Each structure stands twice: as structure tokens, then as C-alpha cells.
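Let us work through a complete example step by step.
Step 1: write down the sequence.
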Amino acid sequence: MLANQTFVTQLLQLYHGNKPVGAGPIDLPTIDQVKFLCDAGLGPIAFKVYKEELIDSDLVLYSVLKSADLTTRAIYGQQEKAAVELTRELQGAGVVPTFLKGISTSEEFYTPPYLRLMSDIDILIKRSEVDLVMAKVADLGYVITDEQWRMYRKNGAHHLPEARHPVTGVTIEVHTGLFAQTEFYSGEYVFQPDCIAGQNVEFDYRGTRAARFTPEFQLIYTLSKWSVDESWATKLTSINDTIHILKKYEPELDWPTLLRWFAASPHLLPITIALLYYLEQADIVAVPPLLRESLADADRKHSPRKLKLLTWLLHTYPFNARDKFHGGFSRWCAHSLWLHLTNPNSRDLGITSARLHRFYMSALYGKSNPFRSVKSGLNALVYRIRK
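Step 2: predict the structure and record it as C-alpha cells.
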């Protein structure tokens, strides 16, 4: 068995054809693992991969996954219809929206598209188009509450308040930027409007005009968005999008441009190295020779301890569902460590190790000790950092 083999990597291997069904023994997921896959957005994919085996061996798991599949089909059908209506309205007003995230990748990479679960329809427009676009959204029956507008004006954001349709329940999120001002990617050149403008490709979407990012920009945006998402530990849809992009476009990707973007993004480079090496070791993707050489060079420039810990976090959380099976304190520790490791200004982890160890000793032996139940988890974390 591969070092990185888990129930998640097995599913991704089977889904992407790296391990043909029937080629060898398949470990069917447990009910808890199935629930995790559904929560993480891979329920329909799990049903597609395992349905033939489950219908003969475990009707309970089969029913759970089939229910997830049917629910996603229905939701996606409503979202797809709403996206067509929106793009048609905007096309009539001279606006071509750029699809973001699920509405973009579902159409380009997934067969059928509903296999890519999404919570809403995300589009990117120019700031000068905001009033016109929001008027069209309102004309289609979508509602934004006064409270939502109040919070938006108070805090600001890179997207307008989420607009929800009271009948279908579909929500639309209109973006004028890709990252909030508080997120460190917001200041990087690659995500500025001038750079983004040259990375759009128009395409026919169900008889209407829309745009999506070039494969290169889709890759770096997907990785960046996932790395700052508070749900990184369960955001398997973004990881699967990354795999799809690499598998479909790897031979024709403009690697010199991508490597230039990676080199200019100290936040993203360690994450990219850790994730691609992990996926390769799990026999899901192959790292191209040019990228391997460049990443190996970057690897030598980064703390080996940092990259080792990032790999451990990937293996322990999104690929092993620890976020699902362990308590909130474990999740908080992992997220704090993740933020530290992805921060280019962070110092060596020796300081972090000492701080965690002092906190651990205080929590374990202090007068007030609400964390005794997480002793083993925290002990393992401290051990990993010091190793």
C-alpha cells in the first residue's frame, strides 16, 4: 500500500482512473467515512465509484450515497437554470460575467457537471458594472436583506452581499475582486484587475456567453482560494478541481508563466509543493519534469520542517477526515498551525513548538483543565513539530 493511501485517496484514484474498478481489492468506506465524503462535497462522486459494489454488499451505505446523489442532481439543476437566466440577462445588457469556482469547474471538468457540488453561483464583474448587474439580479427575483447591506457597507468585501431567490433557494454572489483586503493574496500582482483581465476566456454556456479563467489562472486561483479557506481541512472539492486541471491540461499548461506566478507568491509556493508531492505519492497525479525541477529548487529554499508539517496536515485532515472525527480543539490547533505555516513572514517553528509545549503543559497540569480529553492529539502535534 502507498504511504499516502487513505479512503479519500482511494476514492480519488478510482474516480480519476488511476486504479480501475475490478483491478484489485477495494476497501469500501464506513458509514462515518461516507458521511464525511458527503459533507466534503464528494458524495455524488463516491456514489458513482462505489454504487456497483455497494448495491450487492451494503444497502445502507448505498442508500446514503444515492440520496446524496439525487439531492445534488436536484440542487444543481436549479443552479444551472438560474445561471443560464442570469447570463442571458447580463448578455442583453452587454455584460459577460466570469464564472468562478464551482459554476466554472463543474462545466469544464465534470461529467455530468452536477458531480461538482457548489453552494452558490459565483461570478466576477468589473466595478463599473455593479449597479447594472445588481439591478438585473433584483429583476430576476433575488433578494438581499437590509441587514446584509448594512454589514456590507460597514465591513466592505470583495463581493456584494449574497442574493437569494425566495422560491428556488438559489444564491448568487457577485464579485468585484478575488480576495478580501484582509487576505494576504489581495495585494499580490497576479490577483490585481489588470492581470486578471488578461486571463479570461469566453465560452458558450447553454446558448449564452460567459467567461472563465485560463487553465493556468484557474489552477493558481483554485490553490490560493483553498489555502486561505477556513474549511481547508474538508475542502475536497477544491483539491479535486486541482487534480482535474492538472489531468486535463498538464501537457499544454504554460509552466514558465505558472512558475513565475508561484515564485512571486511566497504564500502559495509551500502549499503547492506539499499538495503536489502528496498527490504524486498517492498515485493520483504526476508532477511534470519542469515543475518538479523548479519545485525541488524552491523546496531547498524553504524550511524542510515547514514542508514536512504541511504534508502531515494534509494527510491527517482533508485526506484522513480527522476534522470530522475529532473535537473542536484539535481542529483549532490544526488551523492555527496551518495559518502559521502558510504565512511567509512566519519564523522557524522552534518558537511555535515551545509555545505549544508550554500551553500543553499548562492545559494538562493546571488547576483548570478542560482539555484533558485531547491529551493524545496535542501530544502528537507537539511531537510532530519538534521532530
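Step 3: interpret the result. Confidence is low (pLDDT under 50) at residues 361-374.
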